[in-house]
Design goal:
This protein is of the alpha/beta class and 444 residues long. 18% of the residues lie in helices and 28% in strands. It is built from nine helices and 34 strands. Helix 2 links the parallel strand 4 and strand 5. The mean pLDDT is 95.
């Protein structure tokens, strides 16, 4: 963009309608805080400065602001106009266009903001608004766009301040603005709190600019969801569903098979290679990576895990952070793996917990295996070599090493290292007591 662009993201609202002890913008949709979604849309614009307007004494919100942005504090909650004024000092000396948006609109995308800024400059406008035609699905509590007889934008009237004729208007305010910095501050200096809420409305600058003869451009958008804010947990769930659908659609268009998108939850940081298959009721979170040809699920959860090419995961499998399945490995039914590497072609087929361990290529871990990795003070590691065959119901008390090609006996609690190609057996010798059952029956 030839014209400098700054951005103000308004994040100081109280969010009381969430009815939550957790501040609204810390609530997550598809695993990302609401503020994070807005900032993700802003980042590709390269806005400089980019300023997030935050409330006082909320360090958790400050911590979400990335290094390419800064914060400014709105000390008094006196409306959107007051929130923008809180960013005035941070934009001191900036001459260009200022993008202003709310932080609780997770469905906006960078392409929308870029198109709006471009339309603003093409129109030679002092201010540009994003507008859309309201529908029953998005609700009706948006400010109404009032136009003059010739079609020019005259004002935005908030719904609670609108008369019956204004309420009937279909074109509404989406809550995104691009304003020339010189006109922004001069107009804000003239707004008042003479309205139903006794607040300083940012929207009042539209009437001021129009009265001054400035060009106010309305950039129409064809999807009302761009303006869907999150004010309640119902809104949050609806936004989450839309974001999830977008993420799943993107993966499918890139060559990933998602058997049932409606029951599949994939967070935005997940990477999946083409020709992988994700089965129903699977949750992929954080920085999880899935290789081509892998089969994940059904009923699998992977968090910050790496799943290699042609690996098999599930059903009913939990891969915790640090779990790595190399190419062709398997983590099967009712298996939990944490901070462990399962080597190429190795298998943990069922009913096992593998934590803080390394399993070599080609090894097979029998049912009911447990790595007892915590000694009461710190986590210890288990090392299982290549082509190892462990039997059912083994406990490996870490730290312990099982050599390449070794075997274990069923029911063994392994506390000492097993040399390569050896059989490790650690269990009490079986004793049969003849006639025991007959004597017990006589005692009844």
């Amino acid at each position: 963009m030839t014209q400098p662009l700054a951005c103000l993201v308004l994040a100081a609202g109280k969010g009381t309608r969430m009815k939550s002890r957790l501040p609204k913008l810390l609530h997550t949709a598809c695993g990302r805080p609401l503020l994070g979604w807005s900032l993700a849309a802003v980042e590709p614009l390269g806005a400089d400065p980019a300023v997030v307007i935050v409330p006082p004494d909320l360090p958790e919100l400050d911590a979400l602001v990335p290094g390419w942005a800064s914060t400014a504090v709105q000390h008094s909650a006196r409306g959107t106009g007051d929130a923008v004024l809180a960013g005035r000092e941070a934009l001191s000396g900036f001459a260009g266009d200022v993008l202003i948006m709310n932080a609780d609109h997770p469905l906006v995308e960078a392409e929308t903001l870029l198109a709006m800024a471009a339309a603003h400059r093409e129109a030679g406008a002092a201010a540009t608004l994003l507008t859309f035609d309201r529908t029953d699905t998005i609700g009706g509590d948006f400010g109404r766009i009032v136009r003059r007889s010739g079609g020019a934008v005259e004002a935005i009237v908030e719904l609670r301040d609108a008369d019956d004729d204004q309420r009937a208007l279909r074109e509404v305010n989406g809550g995104y603005y691009v304003v020339r910095s010189d006109r922004l501050w001069s107009a804000l200096d003239r707004i008042t709190d003479q309205n139903d809420q006794g607040e300083l409305y940012l929207t009042d600058i539209v009437a001021i600019l129009a009265t001054d003869g400035d060009v106010v451009h309305a950039h129409r958008h064809d999807d009302p969801l761009v303006a869907k804010g999150v004010n309640t947990r119902v809104d949050l769930a609806e936004a989450d569903a839309e974001l999830r659908a977008r993420i799943n659609r993107g993966h499918m268009l890139a060559g990933v098979t998602i058997v049932d998108p409606a029951s599949t939850f994939i967070e935005p940081g997940v990477e999946i290679e083409a020709d992988a298959t994700v089965h129903p009721f699977t949750v992929l979170r954080g920085a999880t990576r899935v290789g081509a040809g892998a089969q994940v699920g059904p009923h699998a959860v992977a968090v910050d895990a790496t799943i290699g090419r042609d690996a098999l995961v599930g059903p009913f499998c939990y891969l915790r952070p640090g779990a790595t399945l190399m190419d062709g490995a398997k983590a099967g039914t009712y298996v939990e793996i944490k901070n462990s590497v399962i080597g190429e072609g190795a298998k943990v087929p069922h009913l096992s917990y593998i934590g803080d361990a390394e399993v070599g290529s080609g090894s097979n871990i029998g049912a009911g295996a447990i790595t007892a990795n915590y000694d009461g003070n710190e986590k210890q590691r288990t090392t299982i070599g290549r082509d190892v065959h462990t039997s059912s119901h083994n406990v490996f008390v870490a730290p312990v090493t099982i050599g390449d090609g070794a075997w274990t006996g069923a029911g063994s609690v392994i506390t000492n290292d097993i040399p390569p190609d050896a059989l490790g057996v650690a269990r009490a010798k079986q004793t049969n007591i003849e006639g025991y059952g007959r004597r017990k029956r006589r005692q009844r």
